[in-house]
Amino acid sequence: MSSALQTRGLVKRFGGFTATADVSLDIAGGARHALIGPNGAGKTTLVNLLTGFLAPTSGSVLLEGRDVTRMAQHVRVRRGLARTFQINQLFPGMTVLESVAMAVCERRGLGARWWRPLAAHADALGEAAGLLRQLGLMDEAHEPTAKLAYGRQRLLEIALALATRPRVLLLDEPAAGVPAGESRELFETIARLPREVTIVLIEHDMDLVFRFAERITVLVNGAVLAEDTPQSIARDARVREVYLGE
Ligand code: ADP
To answer: Is residue 43 lining ligand 1, measured as CB closer than 6 Å?
Structure first.
């Protein structure tokens, strides 16, 4: 299968400290791939290098074979690389449906320009409704976003990222702060997303990671310690040492 997302020799230094040390990843199209590692392993830094929030000291990032290392974040989004954002960056008075429709308009370059044909906006509402259905949010379509329960807000964040029609979706702890019972459900919804979207998950809950991922990359001290199937990672003595002190 062809690569959806690759890094080649990615290095990020903060002053004299190396947060990302020569990381080369190759994530296949359609994969459900998890990045794990103890606190301070460099997961957040790596995500920030992938999205373009940070520029690497050296090395490159390739999206579907194209070098995007020097591209700004919004250009990478347009090229198909999306990540979730915290909901409080939205207009709190907007309904769930309106906010997703707005993200669809944004992608289509319709913006909030009111003189665009109404039909275009109706179309965007239709597409937004489809995304809400996919994520099981249709019952809350007309609720103000601020009124959604926390776990539902995290789903809305995913709907907003999907509205950009990503090829690769980066999920950085999508269940953070969500009660345990709900996070299982949230992951079941994520697992049902269509295979056209490659999913890269950063998650510290190993139970969720091992249920969801088909491949796992383990980062330690900014470097890749191991990359394999969940079964092999679970048996890997080096990984067990890092996590269990064995
Ligand atoms: P993780 O997400 O795996 O917990 P991070 O990527 O947040 O790891 O951090 C990796 C290391 O890089 C940590 O030791 C952290 O202190 C350091 N680090 C992260 N960002 C910066 C920064 N802007 N300046 C200096 N050090 C940083």
So the answer is: yes
